[in-house]
Write a structure and sequence with these properties.
The complex is a heterodimer of chains A (about 250) and B (about 45). Chain A is mainly α and about 250 residues long. Chain A is built from seven helices and two strands; from the N terminus they run H-H-H-H-H-H-E-E-H. A two-stranded antiparallel ribbon of chain A has the order 1-2. Chain A is elongated and about 90 Å long. Chain B has about 45 residues and is an all-alpha fold. Chain B is rod-shaped, with a radius of gyration of 20 Å. The termini of chain B are far apart. The chains are: A mainly alpha (about 250), B mainly alpha (about 45). The interface between A and B is medium-sized, with 37 and 28 residues.
Chain lengths: ~250, ~45
């Protein structure tokens, strides 16, 4: 992993990995969603709304997975000062926030016909909403640091502290009474019928690949922006140096 | 029963519409911002 902390090496890898992840992710996620919408049978209790799970579950997984990625990158930035770790964390934030928002929206739409309500302030829904606000706060912090030239350490510490919310989301349905069902998939066990489980796993894999492609695209954009800024700074310095020397000689 | 089934499909369609539009916008925006930033960097290198 340390090898790819070098931006040149990373860009060489990202150039062929981006389209690979993008197209395989699109094919798998769209295929799984199409299968989920048109081919799986309606569930005995949920009816047709079971089809929403093929977009809701991958979005929830990536909302939490995204913040885990931010926390790992933040730790790498603080411990090893990897130049790419901060960029990776910044690149994850917006896709992670989007997937969290999609999870909340689709969950709410699923809840109305299933539970009879759009929203309840229970542990799972509230902690997921907190995650959305954490993403918004993280994006605001990193943008302020980039604009004002501040340290990336504050955002990294925020990224690490915010990771406390991830296990809370995961365990919320076990710790507190909730309308949300308990975990359907645990270590090696699944309460989901095979007819739904197989397309659901394909959807999770497909969305994860798509998420990876989006993060790589954001990282490439951020690296390119930093390279342009560095070049402009160097050019400004080169132009200023002879002028400053001339001014210095005149004063002498 | 028929009306109930139709209503359930409305929720399914709404969920997929929101999810797919959000993901399409995110993917297109990420792709365009990457290609633009890399084009700007390449132009700066040539200058």
């Amino acid at each position: 992993m340390h090898i790819y902390a070098n931006p040149t090496r990373f860009l060489k890898l990202a150039k062929w990995l981006t389209p690979l992840l993008l197209w395989s992710g699109l094919a798998l996620s769209l295929g799984a969603m199409a299968y989920g919408v048109f081919s799986v049978p309606p569930d005995r209790l949920m009816g047709e709304t079971v089809r929403i799970l093929f977009i809701h579950v991958p979005a929830a997984w990536l909302g939490m997975g995204g913040w885990t990625g931010i926390a790992i990158s933040s730790a790498m930035l603080l411990i090893w000062k990897h130049p790419l770790a901060g960029i990776a964390a910044r690149a994850i934030a917006l896709p992670g926030m989007t997937f969290t928002a999609v999870c909340l929206a689709t969950g709410s739409i699923w809840g109305r016909p299933t539970w009879g309500t759009w929203w309840v302030w229970d542990g799972r829904l509230t902690s997921m909403l907190v995650l959305l606000f954490l993403y918004a706060g993280y994006i605001a912090l990193t943008q302020a640091a980039a604009r004002e030239g501040g340290s990336a350490k504050i955002a990294a510490i925020f990224g690490l502290v915010g990771a406390i919310n991830v296990p809370i989301i995961n365990r919320s349905v076990v710790w507190w009474n909730s309308l949300h069902q308990p975990p359907s998939i645990t270590m090696g066990k699944s309460a989901i019928d095979g007819a739904y489980l197989a397309p659901l796993l394909v959807a999770v894999i497909g969305f994860s690949l798509l998420f990876g492609a989006i993060v790589l695209m954001r990282m490439r954009a951020l690296i390119a922006e930093e390279q342009v800024a560095a070049r402009l700074r160097r050019r400004a310095l080169d132009e200023d140096t002879p002028a400053a020397m001339a001014a210095g000689m005149e004063t002498a | 029963m028929m009306r109930e089934d139709m209503a359930q499909w409305d929720f399914v369609i709404a969920a997929y519409a929101i999810g797919l539009v959000a993901l399409a916008l995110l993917t297109i925006w990420a792709w365009r911002s990457m290609t633009r930033a890399e084009a700007r960097r390449d132009a700066a290198r040539r200058r």
